[in-house]
Specification:
Layout lengths: L1 E3 L5 H8 L9 E3 L10 E3 L11 H17 L11 H9 L2 H10 L6 E5 L3 H16 L3 E5 H5 L11 E5 L6 H14 L2 E6 L10 E4 L8 H19 L11 H7 L5
Parallel strand pairs: 1-2, 2-3, 4-5, 4-6, 6-7, 7-8
């Protein structure tokens, strides 16, 4: 199973060419991709921005659709709810702007998630780095409690993923600990309002936590865009100028 936004990266193509038959792989890629064969599944039109937001959302949606085609996952019936849930997440942009006002952008911005939401935390940290060039870190919920937490202070900002499920109670404990330290917290997810009122809450529609990363990535994408504008960065540039352009010339993707 290969995921490639554009299908043009050399190692993506080389990986598929290593198979003796096209019957052994599936590639999820954007429209107009040079990848060909019966296993190619398309997502959305190619995006101008190398940050890739719609393409990311489309790719993980295709993975969910493949899972349904291969079997009967317990969240099968909820797949049809995703378009409306994503639409509701898109409408959170005004609240995201408010969240940006709360973040200290001169410090590392931390993202934390447990279970499937860990992937969302990593995506949020990556998008903010790519779009605004800020220092970010993505943490697994339990891992941040076993060491990294002691490096945070009152000037830091933390985005926590708040989903119904096994990790919610622990997420509440982490948020309470962060408030004791004095750090600013923003909660994203269907259970955002269950956390402390001092946490800025970006509530998304409730959906199975295995599908929730598809929805919850959207407000984090908005966050990356709004922060890039706040700090005066072109979110679509991928810093392809000056020494960064020279650095990127030293390797081929």
């Amino acid at each position: 199973m290969l995921l490639s936004h554009r299908g043009s990266k050399r190692f993506s193509q080389a990986a598929l060419q290593g198979f003796s038959s096209q019957d052994h792989w599936v590639a999820i890629t954007g429209e107009g991709s040079p990848l060909t064969g019966p296993g190619v599944v398309y997502t959305v039109a190619q995006e101008r921005s190398p940050v890739h937001t719609a393409s990311h959302t489309g790719a993980i949606l295709r993975l969910a659709q493949l899972a349904v085609a291969l079997g009967s996952p317990p969240w099968d019936a909820e797949l049809a709810r995703l378009p409306d849930a994503i639409g509701a997440a898109v409408s959170l942009r005004p609240q995201v702007v408010e969240a940006v006002d709360r973040l200290n952008l001169t410090r590392v911005v931390h993202f934390v998630g447990g279970g499937p939401a860990y992937a969302t935390a990593l995506e949020g940290a990556l998008k903010l780095r790519e779009a605004a060039y800020l220092s970010t870190e993505g943490h697994e919920l339990e891992s941040i409690l076993h060491g990294p937490l002691i490096s945070l202070d009152a000037e830091d900002s933390v985005v926590v993923m708040a989903q119904p499920g096994a990790t919610l109670e622990r997420t509440g404990e982490l948020t309470a600990a962060l408030h004791e330290i004095g750090a600013t917290t923003v909660a994203v997810g269907a259970s955002a309002t269950s956390l402390s009122e001092t946490t800025l809450q970006l509530e998304t529609p409730e959906i199975d936590e295995r599908l929730a990363p598809i929805v919850n990535a959207v407000p984090l994408q908005w966050l990356a865009l709004e922060v890039s504008r706040r700090v005066g960065v072109d979110a679509d540039s991928f810093r392809a100028v000056g020494r960064y352009a020279a650095a990127q010339s030293k390797f081929t993707l």
